[in-house]
Amino acid sequence: MTTHGPVMPVWSCGGCDLPWPCPTRKRELRAEYADAPVSLALYLGSYLVQATEDMPWTPAGVLHRRFLGWTRETALRPPGVRNTDSSASPTTRRKR
Fold this sequence. Notes:
2 strands; disordered C terminus
């Protein structure tokens, strides 16, 4: 069990006192959910809902970036894996 859990209602890290999720917890979560990015987003989304209730003065965009925004970073992909979704770039789509 990690010591880098959230301390509520201030949402700081219990291990390092940085805003949660801290860099250490993000690394742990990336490893834990490496093959399940949707599950990671759902897990963090539930925390986002709680955090918005605990910190209503914080702009929604700030909390979204803090809890979910980092999950879309390329660091989540295993090394050497590229985005192969053809809808990602209009130049990669074939004309019919």
